[in-house]
Design goal:
Radius of gyration: 19 Å
Strand content: under 5%
Distance between the termini: 35 Å
Shape: globular
Number of strands: 0
Order of helices and strands: HHHHHHHHHH
Structural class: mainly alpha
Helix content: over 70%
């Protein structure tokens, strides 16, 4: 409610012609961005929602060891964000391929690790993908909307991203379906990520640089 009363429309206040605010919303582009964001968000939150369970199933039985493992592996997120700042001129297909490859190797490695110490570097690789994926998705989404539609477009992006947080645990549970362990289900997600990496690299090979 306070936002409703205090925020203003910059284009209207600037006195620009009415046609400037009547451009059609790019629903096709929004649908593509939203679908990719939702899929990647489900993968992203496998780790970020269930990190404690991942390391617990790998043998880190105490909260102290679990928090230590998460903290050490968390350096991957920082590295992912820093790497994005250094990369220029790459397409969204290239970025998504790197993100999905990193998630695929990381999740499969975690699923097959004999203990949590071996699992830490694989978990860090997956966190690298997470640190890279958010700025990549946001930058890509922003290229699809002009100023008149950026609020609605990024609202859709945020809705899809956090819908993935809600959907991720039941998706992992559905994959196991009572037959596989939790870590086996994480490994299946990793295999799906490798397939998605191939698709992203192929379909996005002609996309413009971000």
């Amino acid at each position: 409610v306070p936002a409703w009363w205090t925020l203003y429309e910059p284009l209207k206040r600037a006195g620009l012609p009415a046609v400037a605010v009547r451009t059609r919303f790019p629903w096709r582009a929004a649908a593509l961005v939203s679908a990719v964001t939702l899929a990647l968000s489900i993968v992203f939150f496998v780790q970020n929602v269930q990190h404690g369970r991942i390391f617990g199933d790998l043998g880190a039985v105490s909260p102290k060891h679990i928090s230590w493992a998460i903290t050490v592996a968390g350096t991957g997120t920082l590295i992912g964000g820093l790497v994005y700042r250094q990369i220029r001129g790459k397409s969204i297909g290239w970025f998504l391929a790197v993100v999905f490859i990193s998630y695929g190797i990381g999740y499969i490695g975690v699923a097959r690790s004999p203990d949590y110490l071996v699992g830490i570097p694989f978990d860090a690789l997956a966190q690298f993908a997470g640190g890279l994926s958010i700025p990549v998705l946001i930058s890509w989404a922003l290229t699809k909307y002009d100023l008149a539609h950026r609020g609605r477009g990024m609202g859709l992006w945020a809705a899809c991203f956090f819908l993935g947080q809600f959907l991720s645990p039941p998706v992992v549970t559905f994959i196991g379906h009572g037959r596989w362990s939790f870590l086996d289900s994480v490994g299946v997600v990793g295999i799906a990520c490798l397939a998605a990496a191939v698709a992203a690299g192929w379909l996005g090979r002609r996309s413009p640089p971000l």
